[in-house]
Amino acid sequence: MYWEPEIEQLPLARLQQLQLERLHKTIECAGRSPFYRQQFASGGVAVEQLRHIDDIRSLPFTTKDDLRSHFPYGFLADPKDGPVRLHCSSGTTGNPTVIFHNQHDLASWANLVARSLYCAGVRPTDVFQNICGYGLFTGGLGFQYGAEHLGALVIPAAAGNSRRQIKLMQDFATTAVHTIPSYLLRLHSVFTELGIDPRRDTDLRLFVIGAEPHSEGQRRRIEELFGVSAYNSYGLSEMNGPGVAFECQQQNGLHIWEDCFVVEIIDQETLEPLPDGEFGELVLTTLDRQAMPLLRYRTRDLTRILPEPCPCGRTHRRLDRITGRSDDMLILKGCNIFPMQIEKVLMRFAEVGSDYLIVVENRNGNDEMQIQVEVQKEWFTGNMEALENLSRKISHEVRDEILVTPAICLVEPGSLPKSEGKAVRVQDLRKPQESV
Amino acid sequence: MIAHQVSVFLENKPGRLEKITAVLKEQQLNIRAMTLSTSTAGWGILNLLADQPERACQVLTAAGHPAALREIVVVKMTDAPGTLHDMLLLLAKAGLNVQNAYGTVLGDQRSAILVIDVEDAESVQQIFSEAGVETLSTEQVYRI
Predict the structure, then answer these.
(1) In whole angstroms, what is the distance from residue B70 CA to residue B54 CA?
(2) Can you tell me the ipTM of this complex?
């Protein structure tokens, strides 16, 4: 049931003691990097004054902008120890962010991914097909090493070529798959084209999905289409990648591995810590990384900590589903809107597909939202009135959720734009607002 | 036997209708009559009276178009004032709502047909036969 029974069930007090010890070491280590050396020198960090893990709040935050402006080596803590690998983000705006790992870090990361996969139910007897980009993206190598460390047979299938993915699944009797949720929906349509029923003609039993925001409805749809259980994975390259937080068999929140990360939820405006149960921005500190420790890193991911203990017996607290990113938030007619809220509503309608596009534009001074959804071939009856009622109903239900009435635009299946890997969900065509 | 038309969903954009007619042309399927109903939200439904509706529906679906077969009743009328009114009155009295209807005058120039798309084609067929209105058999419809 547990990969590391003792650590996973560590009582809170002892877990916090372990965190404090590791935080001291991490701060010492971080002080060797140019960025933190300078920050500590100007701010004055007294390690001996950190007597409880909550005292971490006296440290300043680290942001993505800090990572970018100190690219590439500003956060590297100990070049002599010798980092052995780096991972990079795409860097669509400005410098990319780079994360370095030494051998200890890679072993620790692989162990966290193994613990995570085990927690979701992956076992050494599984054939694990990893369908995601290898290379700079952390999902490829991260899951590869983690699943190998667990002892599963790993197929480094990488991304794309759906027919080949299906052939691999059949040839090697794949039982477990990791990929992004939107790809699974696309893969299912290829199964259908080939006349193969994944429920009947494959050995699939477990999916690990993540790296892309998705709603509970989308997870349930995936589970139903494939006849598997799908478990949510949370990670970000700044915190290694996958293996930060993972769902257990309860499928109710993601256990965040508190022996290796300090978890805080803060109010985005005031930056003050929020109690468990309240939604805010997730802030993480690495506790077992040597080459590049990060202190109080603002993830921009919005979530909360589920306050109740989990029936699975793990003492590490659970994150709720990520409700969005503080930076993909749309502000429309004074309302804060997350695309995820809209997706959640769309998932209730079987008559429309899983892909959607939110277009926001300004018409005659009014911000307007249009949601494009694809008509499902299977549900089309030729009845005009039925489709008009459907559009109205979707519009009403979205309005109830986000307080803005969108125009619903039905489009032909397959006509929505797709980017490599991740689906394009939002087009904001408004002119950038002048700063006040 | 109830006859069928093919209803196809399409976006109201240049070239979309041509994509559908291209599929039908390639398969040598003949269109007898058609209407296009458009919504205000940028999409519409194309209704086709085709010589082989089942096959037309199948090839359109395979080409990625949402398409469905819909039951229709096809009535033959004399091409004279008032005929349509009398017939629609029958449906109104029975409380039946017409989703869509389209007609064409036949080659003999004396009679016309009216294609009626209603939710309950069977009852309509029965109402007409009781009132002595001539409806076309499936075979006649597809060979118009």
Answers:
(1) 10
(2) 0.83
